[in-house]
């Protein structure tokens, strides 16, 4: 694969914003990447499917690496299936293949956009399952080491926590994920406990104990939650939930969940947050935004909070990354002033922004 100069990055992100990569490299295999890595102009940036990034309008200096290899392989082992997926494969193609083999463990994460590399780097999670539950190991190249070589890291070496990993901080920031290996079960090990999904199951007469019904339940739940990139042919330019659910004192949590329209009590919200992998005092960032006075559908020119799902910041057409960044900063500042809560973006900012 050739190295491309001045590659536009906006079409490679779900926000549809951002400038150009000075250099762009899309290797077809990990061996090709090992051979070429010393020639790549630094800094290096790792891009997956662009569903959780906001790229500077000024573009990115150095080289953007986007891995093209996308094989998924599986082997049988006693009561498990072992799936190894290349970083460039889409997350949902792995989920679909696991279902084809009646393998349990990632089905509740059906329909999450993005690739395998981004899924591990962000320790994605939904409806009670997280990547860290079933991941065994990853192969990486440490791009700061010379000579470049492929190394295997076990799950325990990756610092996987709520929507985070050491790939997002100094410890492993220079490591590009090449592939990931998951151990999935031949039998069901976890109940679906999420109330909105159980309501969907009930309404559609689907069985939450059936693996294949689970995917249908989750896809419909995600559609209702505005968590699919495409709904009835309409593409939404968003990176999903913009902020992580913050940790707050229980008294603050009580105040914030007054924003909950479904009359859930604190115990239910806490239980739900636990299912999401949070701890007992993590509250929904959506409720935090509402409590700070932000409104669904509120807009700043072409930047809008989704009309139903306030946590999703959208580009309704022609927004720049800086405009989206400015709205995110305004939200964080106002939430801090009014509620004294520090929101942390789930979306990764790549490149320079005007502060
Ligand atoms: C509509 C919508 C719904 C969503 N729903 C959910 C959800 O339910 N749960 C959830 O957890 N997330 C959700 N997300 C967020 C997003 O889908 C995930 O974070 C996804 O895993 C990002 O993958 P990506 O390939 O798009 O990564 P990118 O957006 O391209 O990159 C994200 C980060 O991962 C790093 N990265 C990517 N590939 C590699 C690699 N090979 N090696 C090292 N680092 C790498 C990047 O440098 C960047 O820091 C949603 C997003 C959208 C748009």
Percent helix range? 25-40%
Strand proportion, as a percent range, falls in 15-25%
- How many helices? 10
The overall pLDDT average reads 92
CATH top level of the largest domain is: Alpha Beta
Q: How many strands appear in the DSSP assignment?
A: 19
What small molecules accompany the polymer chains?
A: flavin-adenine dinucleotide
Shape: globular
Number of domains: 4
Low-confidence stretches: 275-279
Structural class: alpha+beta
Our measurement of the CA-to-CA distance between the termini, rounded to an integer number of angstroms, reads 37 Å
Q: Biggest β-sheet, characterized?
A: 5 strands, antiparallel
Q: What's the CATH architecture name of the largest domain?
A: Alpha-Beta Complex
